[in-house]
């Protein structure tokens, strides 16, 4: 115990001596500080360099992170552009396909319409080509080139001195057909026809032909060889009828170049074909001339 107290007293005495020396010798203290400051600077310099390096590393890390982020954004943009391009190409392909389909449908519709138009045109053409009217060419076995032959026949009608039966002249078929109808107690007669007082054809049977024309109207114009303007002529000839002292029949136009029928020549009379001549008086002369054989023409429009 006494030893411990002695040691403590010695330490306090040393500390006191040291304090007195420091207080009484400022020069030595300042010199010592000068020697210690470079050492402190050397010890603190590495710490400042380390801090500067750490800041640079941090900056580089930040820039690298930004660059990586930009790369990611660029990649995402490229992917977006590729996706948009792919979608656009797909849409264009789809639109192209739809256009092709629509084009095909339009072509099909056009073909149908053209077919319908063609059918309508053919129908219209057929309607236009259908004969609109007919006429009888008296005295000939054939029809004019401007018409179509329906049938070739022989002229017939009432007997010249009978007041009954019909007054019209008929172009009879060469292939008659009959049924089983019984003959009644009262009836009319049907005769054949002969030329009378027509040079080179006396008592010859008279042929005829029924002709079709595309025009809707056909007329016989007496006392002329020319059709009205806009009308088509088919044949010309002379006006014929029954003899003036016989029972009347209609006027018809006998072809200007009559033929004889192959059935032969016999003086059976029957329906007779006489030329018609003009009689001045109630008939205006001029322009008509007395006792002239009357001409005629058959026209259509």
**Helix count, per DSSP?**
2
Number of DSSP strands?
A: 10
CA radius of gyration: 68 Å
Distance between the termini: 169 Å
Shape: rod-shaped
Helical residue percent band: 40-55%
Assembly state of the chains shown: single chain
Question: SS-based structural class?
Answer: alpha+beta
Largest sheet: 10 strands, mixed
Could you report the average pLDDT, rounded to the nearest whole number?
82
Task: Give, in order, the helices and strands.
Answer: HHEEEEEEEEEE
General description of the model:
The chain is α+β, with helices and mostly antiparallel strands. Among the domains are: about 75-130; about 135-175 and about 190-300, no CATH class. It has helices at about 1-25, 25-130, and strands at about 135-140, 150-155, 170-175, 190-195, 205-215, 220, 230-240, 250-255, 270-275, 295-300. Strands 1, 2, 3, 4, 5, 6, 7, 8, 9 and 10 form a 10-stranded mixed beta sheet that branches. The longest helix has about 100 residues, at about 25-130. The radius of gyration is 68 Å and the shape is rod-shaped. The termini are far apart.
